[in-house]
Amino acid sequence: MESMSETIVILILISILVVLFICYLRLFSRVEKRAYQLHTTWRERDLTNMYRQLKTENDETVKREVSLQTREWERREKEHIRQDAITRSRKVIHGKVAEHLIPFFPSFPWNPSDARFLGSPIDFVVFDGLSEGDVREIILVEVKSGEGKRLSPRERSVAGCAERKKVSFRVIHPDDEERYV
Q1: Which of 51, 65, 138, 144 is the 20 to 30 Å CA partner of 169?
Q2: Which conformational region is residue 171 in: left (phi greater than 0), alpha (psi within -120 to 50 degrees), or beta?
Q3: Domain ranges of the chain
Q4: Distance CA 96, CA 119 (A)
Q5: For residues 178 and 69, what is the distance between their CA atoms, to the nearest angstrom?
Q6: What is the pLDDT of residues 7-19, one digit of tens each?
Q7: Are residues 99 and 119 in contact, defined by beta-carbon separation less than 8 angstroms?
Q8: ∠ Cα 119 124 128 (to 5°)
Q9: Range list of H helices, the chain
Q10: Whether the model pTM is above 0.70
Q11: Strands 124-128 vs 137-141: parallel, antiparallel or unpaired
Q12: What is the per-residue pLDDT across 129-153, written as a single tens digit (0 to 9) for each?
């Protein structure tokens, strides 16, 4: 009998060991799953943080680069605008000087003493023959130099009046207001 009771005890012990081993395997499987879940969550969070950090650093780098390029473009454009303004100013000054001095150029077809500078809306009125004491003709002169050789609307208007012979002569006596009309 003793051998039977020993056998039963051994079988019970083996059964307990088998149950314990099955419990161990189940527990090990759960622990392994939980560890995998924790690792995956940690890895995703870490990758997300790393992505955010890299994106922030990249954004800052791009902003700095854009800022540098913008400042360089502004510097170049300011220099270009400054040079353009200087060039235009020189041309305008050259044109204004030419307007004043053109009567003294050899190519000016009338006597410089007969020319009177107005500046606007036309440059000169030439009283041809005035210096000789007998005005033969009155000429309206506009001087054009450089690239802008077209007449402005005001200059075209004056030229149109002259071409249509819409020019008159009036004497005004300041002490007699009725004669203005």
Answers
A1: 144
A2: beta
A3: 105-180
A4: 9
A5: 71
A6: 888 889 999 999 9
A7: yes
A8: 165
A9: 2-101, 153-163
A10: no
A11: antiparallel
A12: 999 999 999 999 988 876 667 888 8
Half-sphere exposure of 84 (CA within 13 A, CB side): 6
**Cα–Cα distance for residue pair 24/128, rounded to 1 Å:** 126
**What residues have CB less than 8 Å from 111, skipping those under 6 apart?**
128, 130, 131, 132
Distances (CA, A) of 175 to 39, 171, 181: 108, 12, 14
pLDDT digits (tens, 9 = 90+) for 24-53: 999 988 999 999 999 999 999 988 989 889
Residue 83: how many CA atoms within 13 Å on its side-chain side? 6
Cis before 153 (ω within 30): no
Residue type, 50: M
Six token digits for residue 23: 């419990």
Burial class from Cβ neighbours inside 10 Å (0-12, 13-18, 19+) for residue 123 reads: buried
Beta bridge partners of 125: 116, 140
114 burial type by CB count under 10 A (0-12 exposed, 13-18 middle, 19+ buried): buried
Contact residues for 90 (Cβ-Cβ < 8 A; gap 6+): none
Tokens 């780098």 identify what position? 61
